[in-house]
Amino acid sequence: MKSIGQRIADRTGLPLENAESFRVMHCGKEREYRPHFDA
Hints:
Layout: H1 2-12
């Protein structure tokens, strides 16, 4: 995951340490992700 974050940092020109953490998830064919606002 760090390499993905570093690639994003390189393209945006912003340091990786300034980024928020992120998650990557995989939804199978029968599942879907919908935006939600419970945070």
